[in-house]
Amino acid sequence: QVPLVESGGGSVPVGGSLRLSCAASGSTYKSNCMGWFRQAPGEEREGVALIPIRGSSPYPWVTDSVEGRFTISHDGAKNTLYLQMTSLKPEDTAIYYCAAGPGRKYGDGWSCLVTRDYNYWGQGTQVTVSS
């Protein structure tokens, strides 16, 4: 069973919107954090949006370049992670990966900011924004 399966990528014009989904399987049940990463051609993979999926304070984090445009959310009942992307720009073009991992205990919740804490990865979905 594949742990994480992304969907929702595609090609859109500048200013368009997309919603990515990531269905998590039972093998990720110990994960406290989930997130979206992306990798553009010739670039290193970067974190885009991360969220604790357990704990009392599930505050998400998004990278500065997508602040106000991308929203990460998690549906616990469906065990599915989402990334709503609006006002897309050409520089958002990349392969987007869903990831899950244990995170690090932080107070009553979890810190999800360390990339190497993510031990489950999806296969990626292409997002292309054309001008």
CA-CA gap between termini: 38 Å
Low-confidence stretches: none
Arithmetic mean of pLDDT: 93
- Strand tally, please? 13
Helical amount among residues, as a percent range? under 10%
Helix/strand-derived class? mainly beta
Specify the overall morphology: globular
Largest β-sheet summary: 7 strands, mixed
Strand content: over 45%
Q: What pattern of helices and strands is seen along the backbone?
A: EEEEEEEEEEEEE
Number of helices: 0
Q: How would you characterize this protein structure?
A:
It is built from no helices and 13 strands. With 131 residues, the protein is mainly β. The strands form 3 sheets. Strands 2, 4, 5, 6, 9, 12 and 13 form a 7-stranded mixed sheet that branches. It has a 4-stranded antiparallel sheet with strand order 1-3-8-7, with no helix packed on it. 0% of the residues lie in helices and 50% in strands. The protein is globular, with a radius of gyration of 14 Å.
Brief write-up:
The protein has no helices and 13 strands. The chain is mostly beta strands and 131 residues long. The radius of gyration is 14 Å and the shape is globular.
Topology:
Layout: E1 4-7, E2 10-13, E3 18-24, E4 33-39, E5 46-52, E6 61-62, E7 70-75, E8 80-85, E9 94-101, E10 104-106, E11 109-111, E12 120-121, E13 125-130
Parallel strand pairs: 2-13
Antiparallel strand pairs: 1-3, 3-8, 4-5, 4-9, 5-6, 7-8, 9-12, 9-13, 10-11
